[in-house]
């Protein structure tokens, strides 16, 4: 089976993107329907809604652009499987923003415009993430570090080495 990994990535990306678009559509339709039916739809609430949902929609568009597989026209042959949407780093951050925006949209539908205050966690999380990345790079662990930046550089000794040192070093026996 040629390009099995690429086909699996393409299938996983297609499923993920379709599910994401469906959830986004449902969340936004429910929000707008709730605003029109139960609450007044003011210019201020629409402006806040558009402003705070724009990053999520832009990230979703970007993930669609880089993650959607493409096929050769007329055949089902895979031309490009798309980037891995489960990748760490910036892609993971984009998913976090999308998920958090869904939650804040639901909160705003239930609580009114006060629900948008939960969205303040996104910039706070961004600052914290940037700070920890910066301090990690300053201390030398960087992106490739093992995560324990406070550890000493003394190599650990095995139990066998500790026993040998306790006995006075390694003894060689001659026969």
Number of strands: 2
SSE-based structural type: mainly alpha
Low-confidence stretches: none
Question: Helical percent range?
Answer: 55-70%
Strand numbers in spatial order across the main sheet: 1-2
Supply the number of helical segments.
5
- Radius of gyration based on Cα positions: 26 Å
Order of helices and strands: HHEEHHH
The main β sheet shows up as: 2 strands, antiparallel
Basic shape: flat
Instruction: Give the N-to-C terminal Cα separation.
Output: 61 Å
What does this structure look like?
- The chain is mainly α and about 180 residues long.
- The protein is built from 5 helices and 2 strands, in the order ααββααα.
- It has helices spanning about 5-35, 45-65, 90-110, 120-140, 160-165; strands at about 70, 80.
- A two-stranded antiparallel sheet has the order 1-2.
- β1 and β2 (about 80) form a beta hairpin.
- The mean pLDDT is about 85.
